[in-house]
Amino acid sequence: MTLTDLSTPSLLVEQSRLQDNLASMQGLADTNDVTLRPHVKTHKSVALARQQQQHGAEGLTVATVREAETFVEAGFDDVRVAYPVTGRDKHKRLQTLRGDATVSFTVDTVAGAEQASAVYEAADDPVDVLMEVDVGHGRCGVHWSAPEAAVTLGHRIASLPGLRLTGLLTHAGQAYSGPSDDETEEKALHRAARHERDRMLSVASALSEAGVSGVTPNTFEVSVGSTPSMAAFENTERDGFRVTEIRPGNYVMHDAMQVALGAASLDDCALTVLTTVISTQTKPGDAARAFVDAGKKVFTTDTGHGTDGYGIALADAAAMRPHPGLHVDHLSEEHGWLTMAGDADLTVGDRLRIVPNHACVTVASQDTLHVVDGPSVVDAWSVNARGW
User: Which residues contact 292 (CB under 8 A, 6 or more apart)?
Assistant: First the structure.
């Protein structure tokens, strides 16, 4: 089967680039003596998760209970929900999985911990819980600069029946903000990685000093994640605590955001969208345009530091060479709008490949990942874990 046999829009995963990405991140984990627990929300694919496991990953990170159910049902036996799970119904679903797998999740409030305890207190074995810490992103989590709040929450979690405080977890989402005025992209990544690591270790140290039960070096987990911050990650020790696991997700694919941040090169991007030109128009007062059969429901409207439009149109997918005369500058639901300039001269029926801005959202809307080796389609992997 070749690319010409595929209907569009189709998601393509270049086999060689994927394998390089898997090996590279596993090598980073091994070098820094940490467990790689990849975040599978990026691909939601059982087949791809097995590839990660074969490369050395231990356990999986998920974002939803549905993802947890999908991967446990597929035989994975260690699943961590990197999300403050709320609601008795969702906790009951996780509790059901514990007969077949080690399941853990995060909490970041006393109320959340108490609600979880009400479900797990009757269990024979306490459930593993990690306290979520905000190291600068500003989303969920106890703020790293308020150790007294972390200590209060830590004592409460440790005291509740059915819960076992096993570690700290964070996501350095601020790494996606890019450099400040006086920084290069490289310096910004190093700053984000350093803050993520050091702020987590400072909270672990504060919990230990306060005598929170279970918080001891060598056994207490310190879990960090974010593909951009992993581009500059180096482990270290503070008061006997070290980062114990990393949870990047996007690294398997990479995308235009990672390229703009300097966390990857365009050559690292394994995911492209194969799409077809459905119309070309030059209307009064407007530039020459080509319209393709992939819009918001495929590419997503996500943008970030350094991105230009909603994806990178390629002139040569084998060489990952951008087309200088094509710009993906607008999206409607089923239409991608491309401005044509210079030597760009697309006609109806032409096909092209576009690197999306955000691989995770692109994959979440589709059913299948087509694994390709140049022009050949060598496999098809289901996107198994859609939904909540």
Answer: 9, 275, 276, 277, 278, 335, 336, 338, 352, 354
- HSE-CB at 231 with a 13 A cutoff on CA atoms is 27
Summarised one tens digit per residue, pLDDT across range 66-104 is 999 999 999 999 999 999 999 999 999 999 999 999 999
Residue matched to tokens 């609601």: 87
Write out pLDDT tens, residues 317-340: 999 999 999 999 999 999 999 999
Stated length of the chain: 388
Q: Report if pTM > 0.90.
A: yes
Contact 9, 271 (CB under 8 A): no
